[in-house]
């Protein structure tokens, strides 16, 4: 009989993680923590200034067509802000932020 193991500690960090939507426009990476587009440097500043909880995870959410370099820039922005648990992945349509 197989017994399900506990979730890995990293999974716990991402159970209640922040999401950073990433896109690309005319060759430039653009990041969204809300409805305002930001540069990678602005993302770092906002995460620090708005006192995001660095003990939570942060997921950099790409579309299928977003360049991987944009994901890496978003990951680095979160690490520069002080996040320890950051991952980059393709988001589902349901996870993507939608304009109200």
Characterization of this structure:
30% of the residues lie in helices and 25% in strands. With 100 residues, it is of the alpha/beta class. It has one domain. It has a 5-stranded mixed β-sheet with strand order 3-2-1-4-5. Strand 4 (58-62), helix 3 and strand 5 (86-90) form a beta-alpha-beta unit. The termini are far apart. Residues 1-7 have low confidence and may be disordered.
User: Biggest β-sheet, characterized?
Assistant: 5 strands, mixed
Round the Cα radius of gyration to an integer and report it.
14 Å
The helix/strand series, from N terminus to C terminus, equals HEEEHEHE
Q: Give the N-terminus to C-terminus distance in angstroms.
A: 48 Å
**Mean of all residue-level pLDDT scores:** 86
Specify the structural class. Answer: alpha/beta
Q: Into how many domains do the coordinates divide? A: 1
Total of DSSP H or I helical runs spanning 4+ residues: 3
Instruction: Give the overall shape, derived from the CA principal axes.
Output: globular
């Amino acid at each position: 009989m197989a017994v399900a193991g506990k979730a890995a500690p990293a999974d716990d960090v991402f159970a209640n993680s922040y999401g950073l939507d990433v896109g690309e426009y005319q060759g430039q990476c653009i990041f969204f923590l809300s409805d305002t587009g930001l540069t990678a440097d602005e993302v770092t500043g906002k995460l620090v200034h708005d006192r995001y909880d660095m003990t939570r995870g942060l997921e950099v959410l790409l579309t299928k067509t977003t360049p991987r370099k944009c994901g890496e820039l978003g990951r680095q922005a979160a690490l520069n802000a002080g996040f320890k648990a950051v991952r980059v992945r393709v988001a589902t349509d349901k996870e993507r932020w939608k304009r109200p």
